[in-house]
Design goal:
Chain B: GO terms for molecular function: 2 iron, 2 sulfur cluster binding; 4 iron, 4 sulfur cluster binding; flavin adenine dinucleotide binding; heme binding; metal ion binding; NADP binding; nitrite reductase activity. The complex is a heterodimer of chains A (112) and B (832). Chain A is built from no helices and ten strands. Chain A has 112 residues and is mainly β. Chain A has a single domain (17-96), classed as 3-layer Sandwich (Rieske Iron-sulfur Protein), CATH 2.102.10.10. In chain A, a hairpin with a 6-residue loop joins β6 (64-66) and β7. Chain A is globular and about 40 Å long. In chain B, α5 (171-182) links the parallel β10 (163-167) and β11. In chain B, α12 (445-453) crosses α14 (476-487), α21 packs parallel to α22 (739-756) and α22 (739-756) crosses α25. With 832 residues, chain B is of the alpha/beta class. Chain B has six domains: 4-128 and 259-319, FAD/NAD(P)-binding domain, CATH 3.50.50.60; 142-255, FAD/NAD(P)-binding domain; 342-414, 2-Layer Sandwich (Enolase-like, domain 1); 424-542, Orthogonal Bundle (Arc Repressor Mutant, subunit A), CATH 1.10.10; 557-644 and 801-832, Sulfite Reductase Hemoprotein, domain 2; 651-800, 2-Layer Sandwich (Sulfite Reductase Hemoprotein, domain 1). Chain B has 26 helices and 39 strands. Classes of the chains: A mainly beta (112), B alpha/beta (832). Chains A and B meet through β1, β2 and β5 of A and α18 and β39 of B. Bound molecules: siroheme, flavin-adenine dinucleotide, iron/sulfur cluster and FE2/S2 (inorganic) cluster. Residues 1, 25-31, 51-54, 61-62, 64-65, 97-98, 124-126, 145-146, 172, 175, 260, 263, 292-293, 303-306, 308, 337 of chain B line the site of flavin-adenine dinucleotide.
């Protein structure tokens, strides 16, 4: 089966602070776009698997973010909670081209 | 990257007129290697015409750095001399640039109007230095660093002397800066990113590199954005976006390169960033190839020679009709060619996740090593100060070997492999007596064990007696293990590590920050031997606070190290909205303030709640609305109440003698003065005060961090109250007679707490450790100490007393409050 991709340009890498995050609003959900100390970009649905806390507001350390509400530690690579906690924030594929961040919304297509 | 050998080639018979015509555009490193590889195959004779825009033979561009610094001459770096071209019957057209390709008629045209036809054409035009488009970028005195002409221009500038500004703190910029410094220029490096060579190094290695560059007398400005290059008929300076002006007689732009695909594009070949090629280096025209930095292969462009050499090999085989497998990009390693700086990086170093990395820091030798693993395989390495094992890690990376069996010893390098793993205590116990434990003070194991056996039981005692771990503290963990090994069961490790990134306690870290003048997170982490590369959510905010408190006005607050509330100056709520609490000085408000609050509540549909701290909370503000809400509060003269801060929260008051029949002093007035004196101050944990007008204590001053109870004869000063998770009544610290003294005493107590307490400890916990009696002596008996504390508090307040809401309503940190993008249902879908 051919996979469809829907790449959206959501802005420049440099617009996201190092060790920080920005959000992307879509009609159905909010996405958190993270930039790590070493300049890697990740995108997760902005909703903590615990009680829906906005992950974009957490402290980014390594490839993880600490949820601002109750400090669950979420892995940015796959959205999974780490340690003893269980749950997963939806992950979106990302690519960087000419300094711009593209997010693939195609993963949503089947769900919609 | 080593020197490239000049290898003599056997004389080749001159190809006859009917031979295949091969034309190569560009005589750089890729073209040179291509011809070598091609002739080595010695198959189809071809008539080769080689156009080089530079008026010289092929040379090793990499070695321009030592030419700049004077360590080498041009002759040392020539790869192909005239004899080589003659021997291979290559028609080298030096100094002749090709200006057009006619694909239909299959010829190239030179700037001089010559037309030379080809059967096969190779484009090897390299790349062009990127010139940032700021005003003044084309003034005389602005140069790039790409070819010998640039080096000659720089040498001429060095002869005249003066200031050089290098824009760009990457590989190229730093090599230029180091070379110019050797040649006697006063050099500054201006770099956009927070640390040098951010593409090859992580912040810790970047910090060490910055020190090494600074030690060469070069000024490094990071996070510095160039605004303009100044000068009328030649450069005189560089202006940065923050307004600073650096004097300059020479400006070197080394901010990056761009594939040089102009010719190919004009000829209608497929191009994107570079000339698009397939795995066999074929362009979209079957008779035209491209090789080197001008190409784009599978979306990637290149800036180091190793992959270009692989391309050259593939293309040579293709031209020789060998049907090669095709070019496959491989990991490349980087080294900086500045004498005396040892630095190595390879692969993906971005996985700064403490579970997937092994870090070794030796602060006394300035060494930092980090190996990054994924699925138990080496995927990257960053080495600074000791790069001997670079090749070994690179090899493990290329082979993709499972390293789980040697993971524990991996970071020590190849020489240490093969030993059997032990538990850490046993490993320390097994060390010989002369093994050095503390590198800074040269203390060996025998001396420490002897000291412990003479009756010492704590790390502090060992440190005081032997000096072990007294300097960088990095060996504190090992000394702890020696205590455990020597004392056995009697040893209880009472030490509380700051977090899992370090063996040091909060107090030790604070001490070292002061003594060793550490002024940034990477500096602390390197010099104190952090075990992770970037810290964790628990040490980042703590270190940020310690740095602010120790270096007021000097340290740049690292907002990303702060909890969200302190980053956006509002309290996050369970639904992701925020609450806004303006100051109501001493609990006093006005009709005007209340009107604005009422209007805001109507307009933004907010809940209005009177807090337990005598002021009003507006709940339910959307993040994007925060700056607008603040702007309206500011209009009515209201400022941030810091309800979100590890800082001064509220000063509660009662009405006091102006109204109350029992009041002895103006408790409301003193409360307002205290709040104005202390507002904006960052503290280890939140701080609350109260002033009651008489011992009936209606302001509940006896459950505050600092409480003042007014009495007929003056003011009783209390400390150590709390009413949260622990309820604790205050202790009386002392008595003063005047309001001025009360203010000074309270500020001095607060400053002592700011300077000494561990992060997140409320005042009462700190006083329990410090001793109430010691605090009383410090504040009430040692007059000079109290004055000193008060003065230091005022200095730190000079930097802190800015209203964060006013700054943000005026536009600071706007990115915090705006989404990166808003995608509507009809947003265009990028075609792919
Ligand atoms: C708003 C308020 C409750 C109210 O509606 O009245 C409040 C709200 C919160 N308090 Fe409180 N505290 C409020 C007065 C108090 C008081 C009473 C006081 O200040 O006189 C206390 C007890 C006094 C004390 O601190 O010793 C108090 C003891 C706590 C504690 C326990 C602290 C401790 O060291 O034991 C916490 C938890 C913490 O800080 O870790 C806490 C934490 C919180 C947090 C910040 C919880 C959180 O992290 O989200 C709440 C933030 C709500 C928000 O977004 O505004 N709040 N909290 C009060 C704001 C006062 C103000 O104007 O700034
Ligand atoms: C100072 C310096 C230090 C470096 N250090 C390192 C290092 O340590 N390690 C490393 O791996 N790499 C290093 N590099 C990068 C390395 O030099 C390049 O990757 C390599 O030179 C690229 O080879 P190339 O043949 O593609 O391009 P180039 O070597 O740039 O050659 C292209 C040539 O084509 C000519 N040309 C362009 N257009 C035309 C035209 N229309 N007609 C005729 N001729 C034309 C140009 O004049 C140029 O001579 C360094 C580069 C510099 C400048
Ligand atoms: S007591 Fe404080 S922390 Fe607890 S729910 Fe109320 S406001 Fe929140
Ligand atoms: S909502 Fe994220 S930790 Fe609770």
């Amino acid at each position: 089966m051919e996979e469809k991709t829907y790449w959206f340009d959501v802005g420049r890498v440099s617009a996201v602070p190092l060790r920080g995050a920005r959000t992307v609003r879509t009609p159905s959900r909010e996405i958190a776009v993270f930039r790590t100390a070493s300049n890697d970009i990740f995108a997760l649905e902005n909703k903590c698997p615990h009680k829906g806390g906005p992950l974009s507001e957490g402290i980014v350390h390594g490839r993880k973010v600490a949820c601002p509400l109750h400090n669950w530690i979420i892995n940015l690579e796959d959205g999974e909670a780490t340690g003893a906690d269980h749950g997963c924030a939806k992950k979106f594929p990302v690519k960087i081209e000419r300094g711009h961040i593209y997010i693939d919304m195609g993963v949503l297509a089947p769900a919609e | 990257m080593g020197q490239i050998e000049k290898f003599p080639q056997p004389h080749r018979p001159a190809p006859d007129a009917a031979a295949h015509k091969l034309v190569v555009i560009g005589n750089g490193m890729a073209a040179g290697r291509l011809l070598e590889e091609f002739f080595a195959r010695n198959t189809t004779p071809a008539r080769v015409t080689l156009f080089g825009a530079e008026p010289r033979v092929n040379y090793n561009r990499i070695m321009l750095s030592p030419v700049l610094s004077g360590e080498k001459s041009f002759n040392d770096i020539v790869i192909h001399d005239d004899a080589w071209y003659a021997a291979h019957s290559v028609d080298l057209r030096r100094g002749e640039a090709v200006v057009a390709i006619d694909r239909a008629a299959k010829y190239v045209e030179t700037a001089g109007g010559d037309r030379v036809s080809y059967d096969k054409l190779v484009i090897a035009t390299g790349s062009m230095p990127f010139i940032i488009p700021v005003p003044g970028a084309n003034l005389p005195g602005v140069v790039s660093f790409r070819d010998l002409d640039d080096v000659e221009k720089m040498h001429a500038a060095c002869d005249a002397g003066g200031h050089a500004v290098v824009i760009g703190g990457g590989l190229l910029g730093l090599e230029a800066a180091a070379g110019l410094a050797v040649k006697g220029m006063k050099v500054s490096v201006v770099h956009l990113m927070p640390h040098l060579m951010e593409r090859q190094l992580d912040p810790s290695a970047g910090y060490l590199l910055k020190n090494a560059i600074a030690a060469r007398g070069i000024d490094v400005f990071t996070e510095a954005n160039t605004d303009a290059i100044l000068g009328d008929d030649r450069v005189t300076g560089v202006k940065l976006k923050d307004g600073r002006v650096l004097p300059a007689d020479l400006v070197v732009m080394a901010v990056g390169i761009r594939p040089n695909a102009t010719l190919a594009k004009a000829a209608g070949l497929d191009t994107n960033r570079g000339v698009i090629v397939d795995d066999l280096m074929r362009t979209s025209d079957a008779d035209i190839y491209a090789v080197g930095e001008c190409v784009e292969h599978r979306g990637q462009t290149y800036g180091l020679v190793a992959p270009l050499y692989d391309m050259a090999k593939t293309l040579a085989a293709e031209l020789a009709g060998e049907k090669p497998a095709g070019f496959v990009p491989a990991a490349t390693s980087t080294k900086l060619k500045v004498t005396g700086i040892d630095l190595f990086s390879v692969g993906d170093f971005s996985d700064d996740d403490e579970n997937n990395e092994v870090v070794l820091r030796d602060p006394s030798r300035g060494v930092y090593k980090r190996v990054i693993l994924r699925d138990e395989k080496v995927v990257g390495a960053v080495l600074y100060g000791d790069t001997a094992d670079g090749a070994w890690y690179f090899d493990l990376l290329k082979k993709g070997e499972d390293v789980s069996a040697i993971r524990d010893m991996l970071i020590f390098g190849q020489a240490y492999q093969g030993g059997s793993p032990m538990d850490p205590t046993a490993a320390v116990a097994a060390l010989p007596d002369d093994a050095e434990i503390c590198g800074c003070n040269g203390v060996n194991k025998g001396a420490i064990v002897k000291a412990i056996q003479s009756g010492l039981t704590t790390l502090d005692e060992v440190r005081a007696n032997t000096k072990a771990s007294a300097s960088c503290g990095q060996c504190a963990g090992k000394v702890d293990l020696l205590l455990a090994a020597t004392l056995g069961d009697t040893f209880q490790a009472a030490r509380k590590h700051m977090c899992k990134c370090t063996d040091l306690t909060h107090e030790e870290v604070r001490g070292f920050i002061r003594e060793k003048q550490l002024k940034s997170l990477p500096a602390v982490m390197q010099e104190l031997g952090w075990k992770s590369s970037g810290g964790c959510p628990s040490c980042q905010p703590a270190l940020n606070y310690y740095l602010i408190a120790t270096w007021p006005g000097e340290y740049r607050d690292d907002y990303q190290a702060r909890f969200i509330n302190e980053r956006v100056h509002a309290n996050i709520q369970k639904d992701g909205t925020y609450s806004v609490v303006p100051r109501m000085w001493g609990g006093v408000t006005t009709p005007d303030e209340l009107r604005v609050i009422a209007d805001l509540a109507d307009r933004y549909k907010l809940m209005v709640k009177v807090t337990g701290g005598q002021r009003i909370d507006l709940l339910g503000v959307k993040k994007a609305d925060l700056p607008a809400v603040w702007a309206q509060l500011l209009n009515a003269g209201m400022v941030s109440g810091f309800a979100y801060a590890k800082g001064l929260r509220t000063v509660k008051t009662c009405v006091g003698k102006d109204w109350c029949r029992f009041g002895t002093q103006d408790s409301t007035g003193l409360g307002i003065k205290l709040e104005k004196l202390m507002c904006g101050s960052w503290t280890p944990a939140k701080v609350k005060l109260a002033v009651s007008g008489c011992p009936r204590n209606c302001a509940e001053a006896t459950i505050k961090d600092i409480g003042v109870i007014c009495v007929d004869s003056g003011y009783d000063i209390h400390v150590s109250g709390a009413a949260g998770l622990h309820v604790r009544a205050t202790d009386l610290l002392g008595h003063v007679e005047t309001e001025e003294e009360a203010l000074e005493v309270c500020a001095a107590i607060l400053q002592a707490y700011r300077e000494q307490s561990a992060y997140l400890e409320r005042v009462y916990k700190w006083v329990d450790k410090f001793g109430l009696e010691n605090l009383r002596k410090l504040i009430f008996e040692d007059h000079d100490a109290r004055k000193g504390l008060y003065e230091r508090f005022m200095i730190s307040q000079r930097a802190a007393r800015k209203d964060p809401w006013a700054e943000r309503a005026a536009g600071k940190d706007m990115h915090e409050f705006m989404p990166l993008a808003v995608l509507g249902p009809k947003s265009p879908v990028a075609a792919e």
